[in-house]
């Protein structure tokens, strides 16, 4: 007698095959049926169990081999399902029909919901009619459904209530989903949003860029981030940072793009405000000193143009201020600014450096000193004409010093220094005039060459030392870390601070070797100072932009970590804004990798570069170090104060840490605390000091204030 093998989850059941037919074969091969049981007719209205699998025996609470021949009704659980199942079985027997239905029944291990199928076996070798009963416990399935439902609810609540916008685009860049936040932001019904491309709605100039980004994401299958400015139906402007992520179909093809956007309108507003305050002088509307530095740098290093730098100073401006009052003085400065703007061409540049000092940059394309001279004479004449302010007719004179790039100097600092010394010379010679820089005016160059030669040997001769300046958390009244600052014990000139040699080191490339030495020394110190520390005591190290290009910075950092057993979380890397403004992919990659290793990345001298501050989304930045010029100006200058508040708000908005440097007075420290910046570094707390001194001060709690 051959038998059908019925695969069930738990067991194999053999049944007589003579009568089963196709139907049985089909059903029996369905492995989702767990309970299989063969029921046979007996006395009128009586049904016996002919065979069953393990799961069925378990349901009925009996051993498998004890069940055969017992009454079905005797064994089926005694609850309301028993009558139902009995009726269905009798019906099936009588009419020879296949039946499917659901019951709830109590099992020893609780109530279960079951899908039951009754299949009549039309004839049987035993001469009595039989029914194959297949039952499946669907409780688990229902539980899973419920779980899925509740999971779905959780996600839906999150998606519906997140302030972020979530939108899905299909392969044709058409919107196929939008969450509530997006709909709210657009102020349009959803029907008008779906099916549209970004260009169709909301449209506007930046949507071209956005749509291209979506297409790139679809094509390359890589996530991208874009910053967008757009207007909603009420015409209010929004700025969003959107992350586009490709979504794949089951076949693994890119089917759509999910766009998750964060409204950064606030951040953008603060960014603009900080940018304006940090780059323009409010009185004259002219660019300020910081922007001037940046522009000069840009003109000579990036454009490589021939430039004349003119430093201009009003003669005896104090007299006007003192005799006619500051408000007249202010108007005069404003009007002078107007004339200076009139003087420069489109390719020139004028900035107010502060007080009555201005700087002018003019292109010297023809390299013709006679023309330049005439042009400056023209400027003198223009400014010599009287200014009418209220009832006063004011006449002024100015002194100007001029330095030429590249003839006189090749760096920003040199040019400024040389133009300044030319200006000084003019003043000493009686003011009201101008003069060109003459080499005789400074003796700087030879000294510079000497230093350069000595610097080459300084590392090997161990003339270098790191000083450390503590950083104080004023909320917790604790020293939380320090900054490593380089010192050079020059045998000829004594102890030198970096201002005297870092630029030489950068120009000559010595900075690479120097930088490695600094990092190695600082890492070794960090290992010592973090011994047995719960919280990392971070040592900040200054990195020069030169170290990032054409040099395997990451490799040397990793080597130093391995050599010193230093952990990245003990080190903070201070970089300057100008490095980020360059935006080389090499720099970005290195910074990302350093950040991924666990280093903290801080922007040094924050606020001094002429920057649009839009690098925050592209670079991994943890901390802003507010430049000391802002901190120190704050007591006298309301513009600086506004700017400081702007920077603090920006940092909070971006969830970036803040450190104020150059804190010299209690008043500055208190003010900083009051606007939300409690970490400070500066002479008020401590000057930079040798490692041993710092250890001593830390051990004796000398650095915390009352
Ligand atoms: P920085 O990174 O802005 O460092 C802070 C400078 O401000 C230090 O000058 C410090 O002595 C000074 N300072 C600290 N507190 C106060 C204060 O309350 N008032 C005032 N007026 N100044 C304060 P330092 O040590 O002369 O360093 C000058 C610059 O040299 C540094 O400016 C940094 O840009 C650079 N530098 C220092 N060490 C290194 C280094 O190892 N590598 C590189 N690449 N650059 C370095
Ligand atoms: Ca620094
Ligand atoms: Ca700094």
Describe the structure.
With 706 residues, this protein is of the alpha+beta class. Helix content is 41%, strand content 27%. The protein has 4 domains: 3-144, 2-Layer Sandwich (Beta-Lactamase), CATH 3.30.450; 162-268, Beta-Lactamase, CATH 3.30.450; 280-437, 2-Layer Sandwich (Alpha-Beta Plaits); 453-694, EAL domain (TIM Barrel), CATH 3.20.20. It contains 24 helices and 29 strands. An 8-stranded mixed beta barrel has the order 20-21-23-24-25-26-27-28, surrounded by 5 helices. 35% of the residues are buried. The model is unreliable at 1-30 (pLDDT under 50). The chain binds ligand C2E and calcium ion (2 copies). Ligand C2E binds at residues 469, 485-486, 497-499, 502, 518, 542, 544, 604-605, 628, 661-664, 682-683, 688.
Distance between the amino and carboxyl termini: 99 Å
Radius of gyration: 41 Å
Shape assignment = elongated
CATH fold call of the largest domain:
TIM Barrel
Q: Taking strands numbered 1, 2, ... along the chain, how are they ordered across the largest sheet?
A: 20-21-23-24-25-26-27-28
Can you give the mean pLDDT?
85
> What class would the helix/strand composition place it in?
alpha+beta
| Overall helicity | 40-55%
Brief overview:
The chain contains 24 helices and 29 strands. With 706 residues, it is of the alpha+beta class. The site of ligand C2E has 20 residues, from strand 21 and strand 25.
Topology:
Blueprint: E1 3-7, E2 12-16, H1 21-28, E3 35-41, E4 47-52, H2 54-60, H3 64-67, H4 72-75, H5 80-95, E5 99-107, E6 110-121, E7 130-137, H6 139-161, E8 165-169, E9 175-178, H7 180-186, H8 205-220, E10 224-231, E11 237-248, E12 254-263, H9 265-279, H10 289-303, E13 307-314, H11 317-324, H12 326-343, E14 349-354, E15 357-363, H13 369-384, E16 387-389, E17 392-394, E18 398-405, H14 412-428, E19 433-436, H15 444-458, E20 464-473, E21 478-490, E22 494-496, H16 502-508, H17 510-529, E23 538-542, H18 553-564, E24 571-576, H19 577-582, H20 585-597, E25 600-606, E26 623-626, H21 628-633, H22 638-654, E27 657-661, H23 666-674, E28 679-681, E29 689-690, H24 691-699
The structure holds ligand C2E and calcium ion (CA) (2 copies).
């Amino acid at each position: 007698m051959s038998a059908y093998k019925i695969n069930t989850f738990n067991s194999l059941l053999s049944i007589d095959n003579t009568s089963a037919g196709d139907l049985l074969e089909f059903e029996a091969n369905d492995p989702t049926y767990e309970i299989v049981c063969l029921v046979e007719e007996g006395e009128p209205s009586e049904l016996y169990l002919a065979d069953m699998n393990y799961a069925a025996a378990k349901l009925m609470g009996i051993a498998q081999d004890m069940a055969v021949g017992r009454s079905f009704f005797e064994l089926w659980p005694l609850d309301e399902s028993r009558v139902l199942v009995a009726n269905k079985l009798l019906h099936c027997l009588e009419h020879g029909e296949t039946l499917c239905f659901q019951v709830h029944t109590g099992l020893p291990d609780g109530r279960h919901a079951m899908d039951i199928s009754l299949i009549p076996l039309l004839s049987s070798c035993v001469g009595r009619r039989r029914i194959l009963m297949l039952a499946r416990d669907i409780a688990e399935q229902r539980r899973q459904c419920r779980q899925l439902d509740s999971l779905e609810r959780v996600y839906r609540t999150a998606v519906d209530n997140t302030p972020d916008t979530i939108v899905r685009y299909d392969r044709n860049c058409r919107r196929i989903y939008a969450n509530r936040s997006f709909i709210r932001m657009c102020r349009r019904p959803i029907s008008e949003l779906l099916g549209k491309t970004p260009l169709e709605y909301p449209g506007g100039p930046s949507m071209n860029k956005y749509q291209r980004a979506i297409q790139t994401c679809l094509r390359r299958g890589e996530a991208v981030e874009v910053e967008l400015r757009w207007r909603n139906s009420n015409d209010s402007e929004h700025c969003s940072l959107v992350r586009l992520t490709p979504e794949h179909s089951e076949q693994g093809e890119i089917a759509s793009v999910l766009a998750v956007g964060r409204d950064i309108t606030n951040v953008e507003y603060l960014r603009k405000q900080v940018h304006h305050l940090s780059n323009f002088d409010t009185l004259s509307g002219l660019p300020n000193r910081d922007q001037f530095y940046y522009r000069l740098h840009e003109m000579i290093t990036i454009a490589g143009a021939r430039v004349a730098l003119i430093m201009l100073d009003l003669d005896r401006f104090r007299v006007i201020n003192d005799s006619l009052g500051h408000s007249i003085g202010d108007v005069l400065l404003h009007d002078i600014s107007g004339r200076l703007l009139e003087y420069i061409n489109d390719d020139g540049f004028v900035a107010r450096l502060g007080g009555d000092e201005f700087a002018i940059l003019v292109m010297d394309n023809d390299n013709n000193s006679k023309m330049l001279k005439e042009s400056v004479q023209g400027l003198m004449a223009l400014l010599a004409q009287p200014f009418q302010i209220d009832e006063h007719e004011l006449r002024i004179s100015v002194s100007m010093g001029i330095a030429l790039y590249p003839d006189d100097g090749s760096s920003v600092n040199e040019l400024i220094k040389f133009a300044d010394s030319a200006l000084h010379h003019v003043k000493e010679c009686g003011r009201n005039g101008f003069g060109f820089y003459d080499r005789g005016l400074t003796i700087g160059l030879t000294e510079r060459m000497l230093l350069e030669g000595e610097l080459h040997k300084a590392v090997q001769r161990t003339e270098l030392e790191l000083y450390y300046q503590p950083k104080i958390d004023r909320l917790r009244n604790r020293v939380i870390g320090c900054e490593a600052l380089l010192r050079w014990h020059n045998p000829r000139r004594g102890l030198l601070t970096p201002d005297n040699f870092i630029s030489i080191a950068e120009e000559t490339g010595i900075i690479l070797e120097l930088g490695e030495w600094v990092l190695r020394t600082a890492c070794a110190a960090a290992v010592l100072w973090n011994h047995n520390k719960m919280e990392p005591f971070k040592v900040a190290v200054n990195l020069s932009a030169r170290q990032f290009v054409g040099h395997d910075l990451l490799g040397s950092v990793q080597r130093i970590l391995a050599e010193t057993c230093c952990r990245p979380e003990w080190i903070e890397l201070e970089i300057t804004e100008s490095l980020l403004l360059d935006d080389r992919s090499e720099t970005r990659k290195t910074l990302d990798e350093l950040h991924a290793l666990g280093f903290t990345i801080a922007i040094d001298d924050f606020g001094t570069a002429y920057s649009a501050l839009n690098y925050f989304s592209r670079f991994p930045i943890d901390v802003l170090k507010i430049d000391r010029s802002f901190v120190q100006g704050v007591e006298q200058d309301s513009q600086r104060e506004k700017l400081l508040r702007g920077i603090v708000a920006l940092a909070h908005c971006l969830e970036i840490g803040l450190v104020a440097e150059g804190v010299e007075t209690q008043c500055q420290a208190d003010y900083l605390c009051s606007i939300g910046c409690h970490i400070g570094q500066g002479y008020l707390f401590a000057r930079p000091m040798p490692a041993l001194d710092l250890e001593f001060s830390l051990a004796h709690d000398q650095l915390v204030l009352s």
